[in-house]
Design a protein that fits this description.
This protein is of the alpha+beta class. It is 18% helix and 36% strand.
């Protein structure tokens, strides 16, 4: 039908007046009537199509397969995002949900595919989605993003399945072996950001628009901050203020793609300021937690004093999107990784003097890079590179410029490189793996389990281990040997749980725990009593050496 219509209209438009006049009035009348009928039929067809519900299976899945799955499917997951199934689309990426049912204009999936938000997807040189496909996607999301078989307007993201974590218990006999604690996690948003303070006394965690500040010394949540719906916390940092007090900074992405930084006092979590100038994409804190580097979409870099909430220096790093940002060498060097994998280095002192670009040809062999991290005290730079045969981790000296070390790592490592505050341990993450590396030794690669996906990582300041933010909404603590030490869960309704192999501590969340193994009922009761150990839990969370708790007498 439409093919015939597109053939008739150009014919009528291209006819010269003299040729049209040669047609008989009857022929012209018949042509015009035929055109009118075809236009009416086409209009009716469009109206009928517009009234039909958009099918995920028939309309959206083929669109994703054709336009997106090459980079976001089973073989490749850029930004830890898969778009090859309905469940994967609802799950989102490392920064949280990409789709908000009923709200296409607040859904990153729609905004990037339609070109309303940068970077546009699919990226160049692939062609953008045609208007018809964009309209299909818009209608599907605005109708509630239903799976097939669900009524339009009533669907939404189905509740995430309950996740069960199994922890082996470290308790003395005579409790029969084997025995496990099973933790049933309620549906939670993925962890989108993590940060330790310089002393390792505070761990801040973000799940979408909610921030939880854990008191590591006492092993319990001290503060909860809930932001407006639709906002996503993509970065956290804890900074030091004058007088020794601490503050919390949150990098927040808004539904329209813009972002801001919001500052909160600790431990109360009261908002003390907002930085709204510029579309800040990334933030990086200095090792002493007194300086902050910000990267804007247009390549502008700013150095901030978060305590005073003022800009102290800025420079232009060139055009192009910034993929990663690092502030190191006692806040004197800024390293920038572009989306193309290029590295730019700048040196200054954050006291108003101009920042100068550092050009190093020695970095060429490590480019294009996947991730980077400046050493906290020395002029050194770690770079991660992916290759067809696997990954490689490089350590370079900047003054004098030379390569210091090179080690092989799994090709599944995706980045998030970060140093411990003393610069002795480097951590990084893969989709289901975590890496710990000390210069001069082989990397330790630890798996977090076949069913767990790592969304973000924060290394402990001492280098004793790291906090792993998972897509199931929980936080796992691993030591440097890759051994799981604890699981932290905060459900957002005042219930929380910290479970370790040496004991657990909970606030209104004891019902999340059940017992597995060849245990008699009386043994389970004894085990539950013996496993409730707040002091030992606090030791584990602080990465201290812990001994098993004695069992109560029968």
């Amino acid at each position: 039908m439409f093919k015939g219509l597109t053939g008739v209209l150009p014919f009528l438009n291209n006819c010269k007046r003299s040729q049209a006049e040669k047609l008989g009035e009857g022929v012209k009348a018949r042509m015009l009537r035929m055109t009118a009928v075809m236009l009416s039929v086409a209009t009716v067809a469009v109206l009928i199509v517009g009234q039909e519900p958009v099918s995920y299976t028939k309309d959206i899945a083929p669109l994703m397969l054709k336009r997106c799955v090459a980079c976001h499917g089973p073989d490749k997951q850029e930004d830890n995002l898969r778009l090859d199934s309905y469940e994967a689309i609802l799950k989102g990426d490392k920064d949280g949900p990409v789709l908000i049912p009923g709200k296409s204009k607040e859904s990153r999936l729609f905004l990037t595919l339609s070109g309303e938000r940068e970077p546009r997807m699919p990226p160049d040189p692939f062609p953008p989605l045609p208007p018809a496909e964009i309209e299909l996607l818009r209608r599907w999301i605005d109708a509630g993003a239903p799976a097939d078989g669900q009524p339009q307007g009533e669907a939404g993201p189905s509740p995430a399945p309950t996740v069960r974590l199994r922890l082996p218990l470290t308790l003395p006999t005579p409790v029969p072996e084997p025995h496990f604690a099973s933790i049933a996690l309620p549906p939670l948003p993925p962890v989108t950001a993590l940060a330790f303070d310089p002393e390792g006394q505070i761990l801040a965690q973000a799940n979408g628009n909610r921030i939880v500040v854990w008191d590591v010394q006492k092993a319990l949540p001290a503060t909860q901050i809930r932001l407006s719906e639709g906002l996503t916390v993509t970065g956290l940092f804890i900074y030091l203020m004058d007088g020794g007090a601490k503050g919390l900074g949150a990098h927040i992405r808004k539904p329209d793609g813009s972002s801001s930084l919001e500052m909160f006092s600790l431990p109360l979590g009261q908002k003390v300021g907002t930085v709204t100038e510029g579309a800040w994409r990334l933030t990086a804190s200095s090792p002493d937690a007194r300086r902050l580097a910000l990267a804007a979409a247009e390549g502008r870099i700013a150095l901030w004093d978060p305590s005073a909430q003022k800009e102290i220096a800025s420079f232009q790093a060139g055009d192009g999107a910034v993929k990663a940002l690092s502030l190191g060498a006692q806040g004197r060097i800024v390293a920038i990784l572009t989306e193309k994998g290029d590295v730019q280095l700048f040196e200054g002192d954050a006291k108003g003097q101009p920042w100068q670009r550092i050009s190093l040809t020695t970095l060429a062999e490590a480019l294009p890079a996947e991730s980077l991290a400046l050493h906290p005290t020395e002029p050194q730079l770690a770079l991660l590179k992916k290759e067809p045969s696997g990954g490689r981790l490089f350590l370079f000296s900047l003054t004098p410029p030379k390569r210091l070390e090179q080690v092989a790592v799994p090709e599944t490592m995706v980045g998030d490189l970060s140093w411990s505050f003393d610069g002795k341990v480097l951590a990084g993450r893969g989709q289901r793996q975590v890496m710990f590396w000390s210069p001069g030794s082989a990397p330790v690669i630890a798996s977090v389990g076949p069913d767990a996906e790592v969304a973000t990582l924060a290394i402990h300041p001492s280098g004793a281990g790291a906090a792993i933010g998972r897509r199931d909404g929980s936080v796992m603590l691993l030591d440097r040997q890759g051994v799981s030490k604890a699981v932290l869960v905060e459900t957002g309704d005042g219930r929380w749980l910290i479970a370790t192999a040496f004991g657990y501590w909970a606030g209104r969340a004891g019902d999340l725990i059940s017992w597995e193994g060849s245990l008699l009922p009386q043994d389970k009761a004894r085990l539950a009593d013996a496993w409730r150990q707040p002091d030992r839990v606090a030791q584990v969370v602080r990465f201290e050496t812990v001994s098993p708790a004695p069992l109560p007498a029968k």
